[in-house]
Design a protein that fits this description.
It is a single chain. The chain is α/β, with parallel strands linked by helices and about 270 residues long. It has two domains: about 5-195, Rossmann fold (3-Layer(aba) Sandwich), CATH 3.40.50.300; about 200-270, no CATH class. The protein has helices at about 20-30, 40-50, 55-60, 65-70, 70-80, 80-95, 110-115, 130-140, 145-165, 175-195, 200-225, 240-250, and strands spanning about 5-10, 30-35, 100-105, 125-130, 170, 235-240, 260. The N and C termini lie far apart (about 50 Å). The relative contact order is 0.18.
Length: about 270
């Protein structure tokens, strides 16, 4: 299978810090950010079109049936964790090859390394200790159902990482986010230096608009479900701002967080 040489891959379970690290690397170096979570509903729609029974079952259940009455094993099956790995590869293949892509998500499958899709030097999985992940999930205030699913995902991802012998960065409370970021940046240093990267403020702003559009699509995709309550236009999310991109285009040090509140329609909150 053809290698995706222009992609840097970051896998790991929820609560491992992969999205924070991926967005910082993308913003600092002018790379395209692909986040698997923003494709959740597109992937679920694809699974439904392909007749996937677990996807259909998930759509038919009420929230209580999904998250309270289902076992973690049943939640895992309905999460489409295994099926979405190939969908991510399909997504990334459709993206432009320039600039480099930072692709991250819990559903990034370690098999992409053993199959040759991902280059070993351009991939890493963040594997947290159970105590670290549980603390992070509790900080998010997750209900018991999703929390137990995410803990199960961590165990499955760690087993897959060992089976496919992929590069792993162990994550625990002894490391701050800056240390983890430095470790991942060091691993990807040669690839980032070789590029290609977005160089101008205009190119960086275009990447941010693309990332923001993907997050908006995620929100709208959720509220488009027949069982979803609420209005997408009433949701406020945090997006990376164009001012951060301009700053990082002219400074090699870590740029400010640059996060601003937006409604899904694209209007900036006051």
């Amino acid at each position: 299978m053809e290698s995706l040489h222009h992609v840097l891959w970051i896998g790991g379970p929820p609560g491992s810090g992969k999205t924070t690290i991926a967005t910082r690397i993308a913003r600092r170096h002018g790379l395209r950010w692909y986040n698997a979570d923003t494709r959740t509903w597109a992937h679920r729609d694809r699974a439904l079109r392909e007749g996937h029974r677990a996807a259909a079952r998930w759509e038919a259940l009420s929230p209580e049936e999904r998250w309270v009455r289902s076992t973690p094993a049943e939640m895992f099956e309905m999460s489409l964790h295994r099926e979405r790995g190939a969908m991510i590869v399909d997504d990334v293949r459709r993206l432009p090859a320039s600039p480099l892509i930072v692709a991250e998500g819990s559903t990034v499958a370690p098999a992409i390394v053993s199959s040759g899709v991902a280059e070993r030097s351009r991939a890493v999985w963040l594997i947290p200790t159970r105590a670290f992940q549980r603390t992070r999930l509790e900080e998010r205030g997750l209900p018991e159902g999703p929390r137990e699913l995410y803990l199960l995902l961590a165990a499955e991802i760690e087993r897959d990482a060992e089976e496919h012998d992929v590069p792993v960065l162990r994550v625990d409370a002894s490391q701050g986010i800056e240390e983890m970021l430095a470790a991942v940046e060091s691993r990807f240093g040669d690839a980032v230096a070789a590029g290609p990267r977005a160089r101008t403020p205009a190119e960086r702003r275009a990447l941010l608009r693309e990332a923001n559009a993907a997050i908006e699509a995620q929100v709208r995709g959720y509220y488009a479900r027949s069982w979803a309550d609420g209005d997408a236009d009433a949701v406020v999310r945090e997006f990376l701002s164009a001012s951060a991109a301009a700053a990082s285009a002219t400074h090699s040090s870590t740029s400010p967080s640059g996060r601003s509140r937006f409604w899904p329609s694209g209007r900036r909150a006051a």
